[in-house]
Write a structure and sequence with these properties.
The complex is a heterodimer of chains A (81) and B (596). With 81 residues, chain A is mainly α. Chain A has four helices and no strands. The radius of gyration of chain A is 11 Å and the shape is globular. The termini of chain A are close together. Chain B has 596 residues and is α/β, with parallel strands linked by helices. Among the domains of chain B are: 162 residues, Rossmann fold (3-Layer(aba) Sandwich), CATH 3.40.50.980; 67 residues, Luciferase, domain 3 (Roll); 101 residues, ANL, C-terminal domain (GMP Synthetase, Chain A, domain 3, 2-Layer Sandwich), CATH 3.30.300. Chain B has 18 helices and 27 strands. In chain B, the strands form six sheets. In chain B, strands 2-1-11-10-12-13-14-15-16 form a nine-stranded mixed β-sheet. In chain B, helix 3 crosses helix 4, helix 4 packs across helix 5 and helix 4 packs across helix 8. The two termini of chain B are 39 Å apart. Classes of the chains: A mainly alpha (81), B alpha/beta (596). At the A-B interface, helix 3 of A face helix 12 and helix 17 of B. Chain B: Pfam families: AMP-binding, AMP-binding_C. Chain B: Keywords: Acetylation, ATP-binding, Ligase, Nucleotide-binding. Chain B: This is acetate--CoA ligase.
């Protein structure tokens, strides 16, 4: 998957879980969990949605690599090669 | 119902405080429990004195009281001596603002060291502390500040901007807003916490405090109407101390971690007060749940007693299933851990057994609520565990099961209730008032307070059954209040927020069972005439509710339903919505609108 596609996918997954999230204003390196006040249930949903959309199996232990738009997109790209 | 009982055959490394349940029940008295505390020189009783000052005075000055792990994993410590000085500064700070006895000080903070200073400093000053959960949205925050007569709010610039600034004008009683960290300069009408703290003297003499002086205000949710502010007094500390000894088995050498946020009663009673009164080292994690992070903290901080919640345990079960592999927990040294307890919602039997298999320790479920102020029913360190059961009443606690009436609550006939004597019969859990941390009222709402009692019993609103051996089993709520991720959520508060949306005509909110959170908040809404039910509107409504209510309270699912079931008086029947959602029989519909 191309990185731009992955980035869009991450943004969409966030929007689906946090409908009022201003993802356009989110910087590539912002820790979105904090910025968007995602609680642990939100984050769990985000992981599920992202996994479903990308077809990438995401283990709980992978979650430290899903903290920003940038590292989340990298993660998806790396696992869809 | 037969489930595998977990026995406690092997001798524990630490002798449990409560070694013989029946004997402890027979011998315990609250008057004796009162003697375990130090008291003020004039005989008064102040929570902050018991939790902080007396330890510093008794040679524990250099002992670590708080080990704080920041979001970024930086670890800092606060000794009992330092905590004494910081809380003295905060008490002096309040006094310099003219804030005194009985005045309400609110916190809206994450789990940062300043939160502990503000809580205990407020109690030192004999002001009343009301904690707010930082994941509340502007609506719940404003409502609680107003209902609780907030004079002071301690928060951060980001939280203030997001949740309070717009509403400040409608809160004339809120005189002082103290901002922790930078950002005061840009926020009109705020003061710098850090600046005022450094200017305040670090010694403070606690003024006379009566055991019956109001100390804490905890908001909780009811089925209808506004949230209720449960009032707790300084004497509650007697119960915090005694129950933490019996139900959490706290010993002086323990390192203790309670994962509950102090914005809720568990995080206050057992995250701050009880462990400090026991003179322990308390682990404070500012970060959010993350499986690796939690295992790491348990290991690196050498946590010995861990008090957590079913939702968190179920998340850990997903990360590290019972079937294995156990690589993640095994990559940390969890050998210090000796006792695990859980509260907030019923703990499923699988989670109890998971603890035994994956962590080497079964999880001890217990039960209590905001109003009780302390643990009432528990599985104990020395006793067998019946997985799925909340356990048995603590020493000093008298519980019973009351026969239900038609509305599901305890049946009251001519002022009298009927106790259920037969085992395994469902009824409402009731408690005999008289323990020290029993709430003393709902603030400004004596009517609802009075309605919580019948025939000398406090009615909990929880349905349970008691087995032949006296173990209690949670069945459900007797009312419409939703337990989600360990938090109590009032459907009325959520419905009210949704009805503020221009498209919504009516709303009914229920808890939909969820494998991780226990229940999640689901809303059914009917739309005003001419409004079309579209996915965009659905998103818009979810966003709208979340903006107002915050993630802790907002619905996670919204469904459109133009035919919400209603009573003849026009009230949405949540019970029926729930039955429909679950595919259950809908029962007696005779009061339903349109039925004959």
């Amino acid at each position: 998957m191309k990185r731009t596609e992955a980035l869009d996918m991450v943004r969409e997954a966030i929007s689906q879980v946090i409908p009022d999230a201003d993802v356009a204003a989110l910087g590539p390196d912002d820790a979105f969990r904090d910025v968007l006040e995602m609680d642990s249930l939100d984050f769990l949903s985000f992981v599920e949605v992202l996994s479903e959309r990308s077809g990438v199996r995401i283990e709980d232990d992978d979650t430290p690599r899903l903290t920003t738009l940038s590292d989340s997109a990298d993660f998806v790209v790396a696992h869809t090669q | 119902m037969h489930r595998e009982t977990i026995s406690k055959d092997t001798a524990p490394g630490v002798t449990p405080n409560l070694a013989d349940y029946d004997r402890a029940r027979a011998e315990f008295t609250w008057s004796q429990a009162r003697t375990a505390l130090a008291r003020l020189p004039d005989g008064g009783l102040n929570i902050a004195h018991e939790a902080v000052d007396r330890h510093a005075a008794a040679g524990l000055s250099d002992k670590v009281a708080l080990t704080c792990v920041s979001r970024g994993d930086a670890v800092s410590t606060v000794t009992y001596g330092e905590l004494t000085r910081r809380t003295a500064r905060f008490a002096n700070l309040l006094r310099s603002l003219g804030v005194g006895h009985g005045d309400r000080v609110f916190t809206l903070l994450g789990r940062c060291p300043e939160l502990y200073t503000a809580v205990l400093g407020t109690l030192k000053n004999t002001s009343v502390l009301c904690p707010l959960f930082s994941a509340f949205g502007p609506d719940p925050v404003e409502q609680r500040l107003r209902l609780g007569d907030a004079r002071v709010l301690v928060t951060t610039a980001a939280l203030y901007r997001r949740k309070v600034a717009d509403r400040r004008a409608s809160l004339p009683g809120l005189e002082h807003v103290l901002i922790v960290g930078p950002g005061t300069e840009e926020l009109v009408g705020t003061l710098s916490f850090d600046g005022l703290m450094s200017a305040a003297p670090d010694t403070f003499t606690i003024p006379p405090t009566s055991p019956e002086d109001m100390a804490l205000l905890h908001f909780t949710s009811g089925t209808t109407g506004a949230p209720k502010g449960a009032v707790h007094v300084h004497e509650a500390v007697v119960a915090h101390y005694a129950t933490a000894a019996s139900a959490l088995d706290l010993h002086p050498e323990d390192v203790y971690w309670c994962t509950a946020d102090p914005g809720w009663v568990t995080g206050m009673s057992y995250g701050i007060i009880a462990p400090l009164v026991h003179g322990l080292t308390v682990v404070v994690d500012e970060g959010d749940y993350d499986a690796r992070r939690w295992y790491r903290i348990l290991g690196e901080q050498r946590v010995s007693v861990w008090y957590t919640a079913p939702t968190a345990l179920r998340m850990l079960m997903r990360a590290t299933p019972r079937e294995g592999p156990y690589d993640l927990p095994r990559s940390y040294d969890l050998s210090a851990l000796r006792f695990i307890a859980s509260v907030g919602e019923p703990l499923n039997p699988e989670a109890v057994v998971w603890g035994r298999d994956v962590l080497g320790l079964p999880v001890h479920d217990n039960w209590w609520q905001t109003e009780t102020g302390c643990i009432m029913i528990a599985n104990f360190a020395a006793c067998e565990i019946r997985p799925g059961s909340m356990g048995r009443p603590l020493p000093g606690v008298e519980a019973t099961v009351l026969k239900q009436g038609e509305d599901g609550r305890a049946m009251v006939t001519d002022g009298r209730v009927t106790e259920v004597d037969s085992p395994d019969v469902e009824g409402e859990l009731a408690l005999r008032p008289g323990w020290p941390s029993m709430f003393r009222g709902y603030l400004h709402d004596n009517e609802r307070y009075e309605a919580s009692f019948a025939d000398g019993w406090y009615l909990t609103g929880d349905l349970v059954r008691r087995d032949a051996d006296g173990w209690y089993w949670f069945v459900g709520r007797a009312d419409d209040v939703i337990k989600s991720a360990g938090h109590l959520i009032g459907p009325f508060e959520v419905e009210s927020a949704l009805m503020e949306h221009a498209a919504v005509a009516e709303a009914g909110v229920i808890g939909r069972p969820d494998p991780v959170a226990g229940n999640i908040v689901k809303a059914f809404v009917s739309l005003r005439p001419g409004i079309e039910a579209t996915p965009d509107l659905q998103r818009d409504l979810l966003a709208f509710a979340r903006r107002r209510l915050g993630p802790a309270v907002a619905p996670r699912e919204i469904a459109f339903d133009q035919d919400l079931p209603k009573t003849r008086s026009g009230k949405v029947m949540r019970r029926l919505l729930r039955a429909r959602e679950l595919g259950l029989p809908t029962g007696d519909l005779s009061t339903l609108e349109g039925s004959s």
